[in-house]
Specification:
Structural class: alpha+beta
CATH class: Alpha Beta
Helix content: 40-55%
Family: Belongs to the pterin-4-alpha-carbinolamine dehydratase family.
Number of strands: 5
Oligomer: single chain
InterPro entries: PCD_sf, Pterin_deHydtase
Distance between the termini: 22 Å
Catalytic activity: (4aS,6R)-4a-hydroxy-L-erythro-5,6,7,8-tetrahydrobiopterin = (6R)-L-erythro-6,7-dihydrobiopterin + H2O
GO molecular function: 4-alpha-hydroxytetrahydrobiopterin dehydratase activity
GO biological process, one term: tetrahydrobiopterin biosynthetic process
């Protein structure tokens, strides 16, 4: 599991969750990004905590009933990173 977490280069793990900030550059780009994340989250049946700000979106993933990071979080983090990449959105370092 730790190897999979370490491979998430755009994400950090802390407090039993995965966290990332994506630099959307505008409010509208942030909304478009979040809408794509919502579709992926619904399909996965797993929902992140999302905070839309100008000019970024903060995302946290954890499996609440497990109280920690699980494969569901890692899989959705990978998918969110792919969405960001497809929309030309970079993660903060």
């Amino acid at each position: 599991m730790q190897d999979r977490i370490d491979a998430l280069t755009q994400w950090q793990s802390a407090d039993d969750a995965l966290h990332a900030r994506f630099l959307t550059g505008s409010f509208v780009s942030g909304v478009t990004f979040i809408n794509a994340i919502a579709d992926a989250a619904e399909a996965a049946g797993h929902h992140p905590d999302v905070d839309l700000r100008f000019p970024h979106v903060d995302i946290s993933l954890t499996t609440h009933d497990a109280g920690s990071i699980t494969d569901k979080d890692i899989d959705l983090a990978n998918e969110i990173s792919q969405i960001a990449n497809s929309q030309g959105i970079d993660a903060a370092s």
